[in-house]
Amino acid sequence: MQAIVFCAPDMPLPHPFYEERPFALFPVMNRPILVHMLEWLADAGVTDLVLVPDHLAFELRSEIGSGERFGLHVQFVSGSSLGDVLLKLAGSLEEQFCVFSHLMIGALPLKELCAEVPEAANIRRFDCDGGPVCLSREAVNRYDFSSVHPEQLVQFVEEQGGTCQSVSLETSPCVFRRLRDVWAANVRALQGEFPDLVVRGTESAEGVRMGLGARVHTAAQLETPVFVGSHSVLAREVSAGPDAVLGAGCMVEHGAELSSCVILDGSYIGPNVTVRNALVSGNVLVSFPQETVTVVPDPFVLGGTGRVSKKRHIFSSFCALLGILLFSPFFLLMGVLHALGLRRFFVRDLVGEELPPQLDGKRVLRDVRRSFFQSRIPVLRELPGLFDVLRGRLEIVGIEPLEREQAEMLHTQWAKARFTAPAGLLHPWHAFAPRPLEDVEKRVMECHYAATRSVREDLKVVLRSPRHLFI
User: Which one is predicted more confidently, 10 or 388?
Assistant: First the structure.
């Protein structure tokens, strides 16, 4: 039996993942997706396999080789469409063959699908979304597949007047279209949904599988099901599970909480960090179902900013409340002027810091609604922002919220550094600048602040700012 497998065409991946490895080598239960797939293809009766890599074909060749260890004859063919691949295989196509538009795991009865050669106008498939399609060589001669994406094969044949015969399935396989499918497949495999899938490690207790040399502190808690890869270390008071999969060589510091997550090989999870519904590889974290991507420059601080952020939020709220109490006479005056129609409160829509990017890599800036009072006196104009701090729209100290058009112009590498800090009511130059500054000077100070920010530095800005606000 012959099969053609497209290895994740058009798969959206974060840039660090895309450079690191082909999608086919992402692990499910500590083994690459493609390895699991080749094992069950060989068991299903496939002997001749054609792999169409999406990128980094050299890494795939190094991992799979000629396929002898799987009992398969594997060849690699490049092509952007189904027609390109079929054209290159024209002389070696069997009378019937299977086309996989995506990688998948879960044993399928391919012999039932290919029990007989379909007529030239017809194809056969399983009644599952994204499953393999059985084609005949006559169909290749009948239809022009030159611009057909493998995922559109069924739709194309039906549009050409052909029919698609469906073969029923008792269980549904896991089809890999996006990165979240890797996360979901690991969780499903851990729950025992793929009985034919080979899982490494030994079962130390019911629902707990441990790899060779894995170490778990006696004060750590494992909630089943959980998988700990070879030579991984779980420190004291770590809570792992349910549905936590750790690859080989991972280190989890004390107090960390892991659930419904996949930690890929060699990753580090800092102390008191919560990782839930996420996939982690090195210094990259992808959370689901939103599919937001967080990239940490230093992999040894992944997630370790949660406590600092909480302290900063408490500090900002306290300063805002204190400011409202101290300036309450001014708020009373502003309220009277607003009621008389002499002056007005107004709101501007601005943008602040950069949000975690989506898988498409697009830059997203957080929308900030900033409150002002109509006045020429700086302190009166800025005071309504204290209520924005209480609402969580702003920090007490941070970068200056800008108009969207102005912010999008700051796309150079040095200027983009400012967007790692949140938008604030007070800005770094309020503490140190005795005169009005040019925009470039402000942006430079913001970049320095973003790289060195701390609660202590914020306190200095808060204490020194009042004298400049009255100028």
Answer: 388
